[in-house]
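Here comes a specimen:
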Amino acid sequence: MYDPLKDRRPSKLMRRDLHEPFDAAVWPDGVQLQSFTAEHAAAVHNLLATAYLDGGGSVDAFPVWWSSLTNDAEFDPKLVFVARDSGFRIVGVAQCWTSAFIKDLAVQPDCRRRGVGRALLLHAFEVFKNRGARTLSLKVKADNPSGAVRMYRSVGMHPISE
């Protein structure tokens, strides 16, 4: 099981109290939430690889990534939230663990600053609140150049460690 407190890369662990009020997810025009299926895996992997180039992270080659993901005890395909545009392109994804941890959140570079990431986060808040979670956490590189930390703060997430 992934333990964000043992990962020694320079990063921030951020958390949101789900008992505090938060906005409902509002999807940008032409973007909608879709249920994840295994057929989305390659496109999600490509999105993660593309997004992590800007954010300083990385993702394993598809076969290693997919095997690792699907064999993890915390993986639940119902907790992978996919945002698609009107052309059915995956423009954003939030992949969450059952422990109320957002493992990956990524938005296509040409779709950033349109509200896709915010809508994915707010949707995840609602899902985990309904599952009875008290908080939802994620880890972000401290020097992430994509504006992610600013977006996380804008939805009420706070750093709990650096």
About this structure: Confidence is low (pLDDT under 50) at residues 1-7. Strands lie at 11-17, 31-35, 80-85, 90-97, 101-107, 135-141, 158-161. The radius of gyration is 15 Å.
